[in-house]
Amino acid sequence: xxxxxxxxxxxxxxxxxxxxxxxxxxxxxxxxxxxxxxxxxxxxxxxxxxxxxxxxxxxxxxxxxxxxxxxxxxxxxxxxxxxxxxxxxxxxxxxxxxxxxxxxxxxxxxxxxxxxxxxxxxxxxxxxxxxxxxxxxxxxxxxxxxxxxxxxxxxxxxxxxxxxxxxxxxxxxxxxxxxxxxxxxxxxxxxxxxxxxxxxxxxxxxxxxxxxxxxxxxxxxxxxxxxxxxxxxxxxxxxxxxxxxxxxxxxxxxxxxxxxxxxxxxxxxxxxxxxxxxxxxxxxxxxxxxxxxxxxxxxxxxxxxxxxxxxxxxxxxxxxxxxxxxxxxxxxxxxxxxxxxxxxxxxxxxxxxxxxxxxxxxxxxxxxxxxxxxxxxxxxxxxxxxxxxxxxx
Length: 393
Ligand SMILES: [Fe+2]
Fold this sequence. Notes:
By secondary structure, the chain is of the alpha/beta class. The chain is 28% helix and 21% strand. It has twelve helices and 16 strands. Helix 5 (209-215) packs across helix 6, helix 6 packs across helix 8 (284-291) and helix 10 (314-326) packs antiparallel against helix 11 (349-361). The chain is globular.
C-alpha cells in the first residue's frame, strides 16, 4: 500500500468536468423484459461521457403498476407510463429502494408529482448533501410518503421484500431493498449486483458518442464509428464505472493534455476539442476480462460496493444473498433485474446460493491491480476516521 498522504495520488482530475453528459437531453429506451409483467426504462447518466445506463423497472401488480427506482420523468417516459396505465391500471407505488444511491433518489420527487395518487415508499436513512435536510424539503410529498420496513412494505401479497444492510458507513448509511416480483419470478435489485455484457447496451445505438470518445487512446485521435470501437469504448466505460480509476489508465500531465488537444479532426465540441484527460497504458480488453472474470453477463458484486461499502462487512452481503436463496418464495426466482447494466439476468435460488458460496471462498476486497485506486480511497477514509473499522450493523 502506497503512503496515504501523496497529493498526486489524491488528485481527482475530472472535477472541472462535472455535469457535461448527457446535457439536458435524456433519451429513454423502453423495453418489455418479461411479457405483460415487467418493463425496463433505461437512461444514460454520468459525467464527462462516462455514462452508464440506469434503469427504472416497472412491475405489473394485480391492480396497477409499481415503479422501482425511478428515472427522470421526461415527457417520453411519462407517455410510455400512461400507455402502460391504459393497459394495466394506474401507478400505485413509487419506490426508492436505496438509502445512498443519489442517482436513484434525484428523480423521485418529480416522478411523485407526475402521479399524485401514487404512494411513495423510501428506504430509511436517506442522505442529503451537503446538509441533512428533511425529505419534504427535498420535494418528497410527506402526506403520501412511507418508510420501507418501518411502516411496512407495499403489495406484500405479491412482492417479497428483503433488506441488504443497513450498514453504518460513518459517512451515512448503506441499505437497499430488493423485491421478488412473484408473478414474473424477477428479483428487482438496485446497486448490489450487476451483470456486465462485453457488447455495448442497446441504449447506445441511438448515440454512440460516449463509446467512440473513450475508444481512443489519446485526445488527438478523431472519433471513429466501427463495431470494434464501440465495443472497446463500452468496455472502458464499464472499467471506469467499476473501478473509478482502472490500473490500465494513466492521467496525462496538463502539458501533454494540451499538446494533444485541438488537432485536426478533433476541433469540435463532440470530441471536446481533443481534450481527453486519460491515457490507456495497457490493454483495456484484458482489464475488462478481469472485471467480468471472463464471463460476460454473469451476476457479480459491483466492485465499488465490494471495495468501498462492504470491504469489512462481507458477512452482511452473504446474509442477504442467503436470505434471497432461502426465502419463502425463493423457488419462484427466475430472473434478476438490477438497476444498472444487463437485465433480465437468468437466475435461480440455487444460483444465488452458489454466488454466495463463491464470494465466501474467494479473496475479498483486495488491493491489487484494478482494485488499487478503490483500496486507496478506502484506506484514506479509514485513516481519517470517516468510515469505521467495524461498521455498525
Ligand atoms: Fe445505482
